[in-house]
Design the sequence.
């Protein structure tokens, strides 16, 4: 372990204790696409012991511009299977559990209950609100992120902090917020945002650094600016 994870262990306040915490941790990643790809790869590289991956989609040619887990040979294969294959090539020490299904109200509680941290790499508002509500109910920490065009956002929620509904009380009306399929998405921006999510996961699991709690980090790739907005917890929201 020392040789493989030496550069982790050398980090101040990380050490072998932090590496052992990662090895003993279970992280659920919801979505194996543009955000999920860097999240899954970096968590596997860091040495997270168990990775759960939820995604029902198959790989198609338009995914390859940004979803770096997948290759041409994976076309029409389920993304979770492609992701598991790459993780095990990358780090065979990781236990990968795949769920070829949608994250729904019927399975949300059961899925999040078994994990130490949840990573929202989904691409639609309905799933994002569902992830928030399931994690808040189960008192599970999670990372929210979204990316479109050349912009992204990241927020970390832990029990007692402001949640996604505190920042966005209601889902936007259809048509008010264009999707990536309508206005595009730059793959490297998804990579930046996903890498930040992976960093937040590692920081939480090892107990080092300051998390993006009660704040929303906004990334603008056009002018390469990072802006942090404070998010106030709403007393009557679901996170009580």
Sequence:
């Amino acid at each position: 372990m020392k040789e493989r994870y030496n550069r982790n262990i050398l980090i101040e306040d990380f050490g072998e204790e932090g590496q052992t915490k990662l090895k003993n941790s279970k992280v659920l990643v919801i979505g194996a696409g543009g955000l999920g790809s860097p999240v899954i790869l970096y968590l596997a590289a860091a040495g997270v012991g168990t990775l759960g991956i939820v995604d029902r989609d198959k790989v198609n040619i338009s995914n390859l511009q940004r979803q770096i887990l997948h290759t041409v040979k994976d076309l029409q294969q389920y993304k979770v299977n492609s992701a598991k294959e790459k993780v095990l090539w990358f780090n065979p020490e990781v236990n990968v559990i795949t769920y070829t299904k949608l994250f729904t109200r019927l399975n949300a509680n059961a899925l999040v209950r078994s994990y130490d941290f949840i990573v929202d790499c989904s691409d639609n508002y309905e799933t994002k609100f569902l992830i928030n509500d399931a994690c808040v109910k189960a008192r599970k920490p999670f990372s929210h992120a979204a990316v479109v065009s050349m912009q992204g956002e990241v927020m970390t929620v832990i029990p007692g902090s402001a949640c996604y509904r505190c920042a966005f009380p209601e889902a936007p009306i259809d048509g008010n917020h264009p999707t990536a399929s309508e206005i595009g998405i730059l793959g490297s921006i998804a990579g930046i945002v996903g890498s930040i999510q992976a960093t937040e996961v590692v920081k939480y699991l090892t107990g080092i650094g300051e998390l993006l709690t009660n704040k929303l980090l906004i990334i603008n790739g056009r002018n390469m600016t990072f802006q942090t907005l404070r998010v106030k917890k709403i007393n009557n929201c679901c996170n009580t």
Observations:
- The radius of gyration is 17 Å.
- The mean pLDDT is 94.
